[in-house]
Design goal:
mainly alpha
Length: 192
Amino acid sequence: AQQFGEDCPGQGLTTFRQGALRALSSGQLAQMLGEGPGREQEMKDQVQQIIQNLDVRSEESVTKALDTVKVVTDLDLEEKLALTKALSEVFFLAHHTGSTAMPKLAVRTEKRIAKFGPEMIPFVFEEMVECDSETAIYFGQTLARNGVDGLEYIITKLGDYKNREHDLINLIQALSYFKIPEATKVIPVILN
């Protein structure tokens, strides 16, 4: 993480991740997104450009990326996942920038990722259980925005995290964001 700098507490991993994303060559990112002719290739190029131009420390850059992604349609699974990975980096910085706008942009990011569909749930879940509790708020709220699909995914994973105290804290916190009655029934299962 030192290579990419650690100028703010709690941001080293994010700075490292952002640097790692930028370190990908165009060819590597294109390969990750897959190759395709015509309109498919144009879409992949557009997604690649959004990711490469995204600076999660800049309100303007995040706003521009979210506005651009909002109008992009017909994304395939790989494109949605690549955008989810890049955009979710905002969650790691939202409370460390000293900006009142960045937490609001993180909420916009939650909404955008949730609109990509339930295919993003496994990634969002894994990030949520592995990150600090402050950052887990955004991942948990993203899961909750997926409603029953997000809740069912959490339920299927409970056994894997039963003995991992930190992860359970993030799971309970995430459950508190669900606005469906079934979520309250899961908490006693976790606590037992």
